[in-house]
Design brief:
This protein has 477 residues and is mainly α. It has 21 helices and six strands.
Length: 477
């Protein structure tokens, strides 16, 4: 009589974890008779079913629904954060603009980067960020010195940096290792090892020339299109919150109006770079943006917090700002002479000149600024990427949302300086002229004459004039 074979395994039974033994009747009945149990579904041989291991794929409708929900939530978050920062004070808006330009620079640099080649060139990324840092140092320094002369030029430590700011910035960009500050008597720095143009040339390696020069050109293009234009946006904030908020809101609302008009009666394609853009949506958004701009301007002109230039970085919506409003915000009377054939008297009406300027702002935001988005679309198609990044869930990268804002902010600054700004003497300007154009003796003489004038007008006491006269006499000895 033969003994039964042991340790004989069958392939179709060895994979279920029972070491070749047939599952018991109780195990099989539990797996089959309890379909509502939380455990995994088992088939007849004790394996997990295919449906349980792989969840069913999402339909296109579910994907679009989820994307829409995510996009809407983050849109509301961004809008809320924007208004909170704007009402909290100008310094917080400047912080947001700074963060946006840094992240945008990072995203634009990243799409042209080749990690495998960058690994062999250890200073490639460092140079990119160094050039960004030096550009921001120069641009921010220019703005701070211009708008806060009355603070910077009277400070003993900051005065050398302000006086030689452009030279310092240039040397930081160009020199590889230099004692830039040796010629500045009052500067606390005596030697500074720095990177820049010379270091870039010294880091060139054979076999990588094309890649390195491509990165150099790409970095400077990104700086020019992002950081330089963002610098003018920051200047708009210093000139008055309205010059920042109004252009930004015009671009946002124009984008919304273009989408609504496009899906409602859009038929004709506008440009191949953006197949979903239509001529009807483009023109309809232009008309609606003009109406929105007119209404929004009428509201913002009533609040000095929006129309006054910044003279206190600690100001917010509750403390407010105080200034003499720019004449562009004050109503003026206009007269239109009707043709003689109508036998009607001249038509007279009052309106603030800003209501005319807003027509130009709204037209630029509708007809020119969208081409900043088209430019970004072409850039993404060149590198075969859908978005510049994933900084904002549901929206893509920061650059995807700011592509039109940079050029709009640049235009707003140029238009304001050309047609709206009022140039008059300021305290900072007078101090700058006295510090840079007069000798020490002449400065003291101006101080004595100014004190004498103030005493004569009764604005200060006689003791102040005597004190200044004593200072002048001591100086002459």
């Amino acid at each position: 009589m033969t003994k039964p074979r042991r340790s004989v395994q069958f392939q179709h039974r060895g994979s279920n974890g029972h070491h070749g033994t047939r599952p018991s009747i109780s195990e099989t009945s539990e797996a089959v008779s309890e379909p509502g149990s939380p455990g995994p579904k088992m088939n007849g041989i004790g394996e997990v079913s295919q449906e349980e291991r792989e969840p069913p794929p999402q339909s296109d409708y579910d994907k679009k629904k989820q994307t829409f929900i995510t996009r809407t939530i983050w849109t509301l978050v961004m809008i809320a954060g924007f208004f909170i920062a704007m009402f909290a004070g100008h310094i917080y808006v400047i912080g947001i603009v700074t963060a946006i330009q840094i992240v945008s620079f990072k995203e634009v640099i990243a799409i042209a980067n080749v990690p495998s080649r960058a690994k062999n060139l250890p200073f490639t990324r460092s140079l990119n960020w160094y050039f960004l840092g030096m550009t921001m140092y120069f641009l921010y320094g220019e703005s701070v010195i211009y708008y806060f002369k009355h603070i910077i030029l009277v400070d003993r430590v900051l005065l050398p940096f302000a006086t030689h700011h452009r030279f310092i910035s240039f040397m930081l960009y160009v020199i590889g290792k230099s004692t830039v500050f040796d010629s500045l008597k009052h500067c606390p720095c005596t030697a500074l090892t720095i990177l820049g143009f010379v270091f870039f040339v010294g880091s060139l390696q054979k076999g990588h020339y094309r890649f390195q020069f491509t990165q150099f050109a790409w970095t400077h293009m990104a700086i020019g299109l992002i950081n330089v234009e963002a610098h003018f946006i920051m200047n708009n904030i210093f000139e008055g919150m309205i010059w920042f908020f109004l252009p930004a809101s015009l671009v946002i609302t124009n984008d919304i109006f273009a989408y609504i008009c496009g899906i409602t009666f859009g038929r004709t394609q506008l440009i191949k770079l953006s197949p979903k853009k239509t001529v009807e949506g483009f023109v309809g958004a232009w008309i609606l943006t003009i109406f929105f701009g007119y209404a929004m301007t009428n509201v913002l002109m009533r609040y000095k917090y929006f129309i006054c230039p910044v003279n206190d970085l600690g100001a917010n919506i509750f403390t407010g700002l105080h200034c003499d409003p720019n004449p562009v915000f004050l109503p003026q009377t206009y007269t239109i002479h009707l043709p003689l054939l109508l036998h009607q008297p001249p038509l007279t009406f009052s309106v603030a000149p800003m209501q005319f300027h807003i027509l130009v702002f709204a037209s630029f935001a509708s007809l020119i600024a969208p081409f900043g988005g088209f430019f970004a679309s072409g850039l993404k198609r060149t590198f075969k990427v859908k978005d510049f990044g994933e900084s904002i869930p549901g929206h893509g990268g920061i650059t995807d949302r700011m592509d039109c804002q940079f050029i709009m902010g640049f235009f707003a600054f140029m238009y304001y300086q050309s047609f709206i700004a009022v140039y008059r003497a300021s305290v900072g300007g007078v101090i700058e002229m006295a510090v840079q154009g007069l000798s020490a003796e002449e400065q003291v003489e101006v101080l004595r004459g100014l004190g004498k004038y103030l005493v004569g007008q009764g604005m200060v006491g006689p003791e102040v004039g005597e004190c200044l006269a004593g200072v002048v006499a001591k100086r002459r000895r």
